[in-house]
Amino acid sequence: MKSLAVKNLKGRSVRTAVLMTLAALLSFTVLGGTLVVRSLDKGLVSLKARLGADVMVVPKEATMKKKFEDMILQGTTGYFYMDMSRAEEVMEREGVGQVSPQFFLASTSSSCCSIPVQLIGFEPETDFTVSPWIKRTYGGQLGFCDIVAGSDLNVFVGDKLSFYGVECTVAAKLEKTGTSYDTTVFASGETVKELIRSSLEKGMNDFADIDPERSVSCLMINAADGTSPEELVNDINIHVKKVKAYKTGDMIKGISDSLGGVSRMIGLLIAAVWVLGIVILSLAFTMSVNERRKEFAVLRVIGASRGSLAGLVLKEALLTCTLGSLAGAALGLLVLLPFNGFIEETLALPFLLPGVGSIAGFTAGAVILSVLSGAAAAAISALRVSRIDTGLILRGDN
Amino acid sequence: MNDKKNVKETVLAAAILICSICLCAGAKLVFHACGPKEDGSYMACHWAEQAIFGIGCAMTAISVFLIAVRNRGMKRGLALSLLPCGAVCALIPNILIKLCMMTEMRCHTVMRPAAVIFGLITAVLGTVYAVICKEEKKD
User: Fold this and answer.
1) B63 touches chain A (CB under 8 A)
2) Does the predicted interface ipTM exceed a cut of 0.90?
3) Is the C-alpha dihedral spanning B129, B132, B138, B139 positive or negative?
4) A249-273 core/surface letters (b: 16 or more CB in 10 A; e: else)
5) A209-233 burial by CB neighbour count: b if 16+ within 10 A, else e?
6) Domain residue spans in chain B?
7) CA neighbours within 13 Å on the CB side: how many for B45?
8) Over the stretch A334-347, which tens digit does the pLDDT of each residue have?
9) Closest CA of chain A from B45, distance in Å
């Protein structure tokens, strides 16, 4: 019976190919959809962790800039500064726990081969947002003119990069975060101040009357015990002039909402393709069994039991669906893994592929689900085959 | 038996030709590299695109010869030549010729994976074609 199933499939190659294509479509959709949704979820979790502070304080002028949120969340290059006196005023507020300043600077396109990159300077002594990410790949202390490159920068440890005429050494590369960190260059505050000085000397940037020694771009703050981030944000916004405090959770709300929308759309798409695929598979199996009623009747006459006929139909379905599902899953991986960067760019949302183990698990799950669906669609036809009236069919009164 | 082998060979040769055409036409029309800079000059990835286009054209010519030539030995030789061509094509983006600095740019996200996939698929299909031709000779 096993070889008969294989011979039947080979003998009707077009039908087999169509059924395999449907099974492939099912597993491709489920695997692709699941991987995209999981990657978006992981990207959002990574973004939340990447912000790493309860509150972010920036100069009020910065919030007037159209691309302010893109700069913080999406990695659009840019810079803004506030005087250290304002930062000190914020630091003295009650309820401020951990606090660390950051310095932003955008490189010029000529320093690298293509487009500008965002430079972020931090104070290693006080930092609690960038250092945890860097420590995953680099255990040492960042020296003067040492930089840490985001994972999406096409540079390697030991490479030299020149920013505003200052040659910097790549000390480490961050692991992939799925956020704007991937295209950012990190350095100590001293290094970034040196770059700012150099850019001013070369006339490549215009910071008006900003003194790099007495300026910061933003303050990352964790609320002290007993103070909620909301209270701290309100306190700073009311009592400190010319700055704006944001609760970081609120900053990513827009992204979180978009991500929810995309996930829902993908879920609906998977469900629609799934229902359509199962209906078409059921129809295809039913038509195929109707077409072959005389063939099954002859098999009954030569001694095949009702159970073995049902088994034959199920085996054919399982073989077809298994091969089709494997092909669909392979195609899904071939599209999603190499082109994940393109998908990330197209969606413009934080996107971080799950680990190898999870991908293998999702692939196995998609294949099993697709095969089981195919088997379920064929089960009705198998049941009908097991109940055929041999005499009636062979007489031609069907 | 021979008819079946001929069908296999024809299907494989057609698949090789399609992949090769995808490679050379795609490199210019679909998965091309990043555009020129504001000053009109090109970035390094443009030259990788040119190299992929060139090797794609060579592979397309080999695929056409594969269909046109009748001598089985020559067919095997042509099919085998696709193996190094495909491998080199896959190595061009970012290994033989550096691409842009940001891996989120088009040359990394679209051109590189497409060139690697089409290059490797053509190389594998060429090798399979050569093996099938060898089996035919044994038969």
Assistant:
1) no
2) no
3) negative
4) eebbeebbeebeeebeebeeebeeb
5) ebebeebbbbbbbbbeeebebeebb
6) 43-139
7) 26
8) 999 999 888 888 88
9) 10
